[in-house]
Amino acid sequence: MANHYEVPNWAGKPPTGLHLDVLKGDKLIQKLMIDEKKCYLFGRNPQMNDFCIDHASCSRVHAAFVYHKHLNRAFLVDLGSTHGTYIGQMRLEAHKPTQLPIDSSFHFGASTRNYIIRAGKPPTGLHLDVLKGDKLIQKLMIDEKKCYLFGRNPQMNDFCIDHASCSRVHAAFVYHKHLNRAFLVDLGSTHGTYIGQMRLEAHKPTQLPIDSSFHFGASTRNYIIRERPTGNARGIMEDLPNTETEASEEAGPSSEPRKKKYAKEAWPGRKPALIPGV
């Protein structure tokens, strides 16, 4: 398994709107935009990957998605994972880029989540720009459901915030279809939910204007709500629960070292007592 992947010189930025539909069974649980970078890494370690796969059968850095700028085609690369990367039922040869046709499906190890690559643009609507400092690190699409939950537990939330100051189920994003407005609700968290510098009153829906910023607890990740115009649709993520979790290198409220824990998806061949199911 590779701890570092050297992006090939033929890699280039994918076309606008290229994205992944993430399914668990027949249910669409997430959309991941993959049109911002030359390469996206998938793996179990949230600090080392673009998209975290929270499953015991997945390696720390499991696979890479790379777009070929000359061929205008997507490729998937298994990075020497233990339990394999699959396009359909075909296990990929390690370290060999394999073409990923539009509308094809792939998965990692024994995870039951399937990723389907899609061209074009997701539906117009709302999304969140996720920033760490001044750097845009992710886009989360929030126009598929009425309510999205944010919190530290990946099994209980739509988007996982992997930070010690965040509660298990920290806050909710709710869209009011009659008012056509978004609201943010703190769910009684210990360290608070903030719109700008204003801490929200617990359990009270607070309007979230377009282009406003919010964050959770002491996390340094900021979320900015955006509206995608019809002529230039954009969008995306994080596992629903989101496994595009926040890297835990951010300092929590305590200076004591904290052992990283993962809530794992159950998979065949492991004892349920060791790996809680989802």
Structure keywords:
278 residues, mainly beta, six-stranded antiparallel sheet, 0% helix, 36% strand, repressor, DNA binding, transcription regulation, mRNA splicing
Tell me what the structure shows:
This protein is mostly beta strands. The protein is 0% helix and 36% strand. The protein is built from no helices and 22 strands. The protein has a six-stranded antiparallel sheet with strand order 2-1-11-10-7-8, with no helix packed on it. It has a six-stranded antiparallel sheet with strand order 13-12-22-21-18-19, with no helix packed on it. β16 and β17 form a beta hairpin. The protein starts with 18 loop residues before the first strand and ends in a 51-residue tail after the last strand. Residues 230-278 have low confidence and may be disordered.
Q: Return the average pLDDT rounded to an integer.
A: 82
Main β-sheet description: 6 strands, antiparallel
Poorly predicted runs: 230-278
In total, how many beta strands? 22
Please state the overall shape, judged from the principal axes of the Cα atoms: globular
Rg from alpha-carbon coordinates: 18 Å
Quaternary organisation: single chain
The largest beta-sheet arranges its strands as 2-1-11-10-7-8
Helix fraction? Answer: under 10%
Give the SSE order as H and E letters. EEEEEEEEEEEEEEEEEEEEEE
In what range is the share of β-strand residues? 35-45%
Structural class by sheet pairing and helices: mainly beta
**Total helical elements:** 0
Distance between the termini: 26 Å
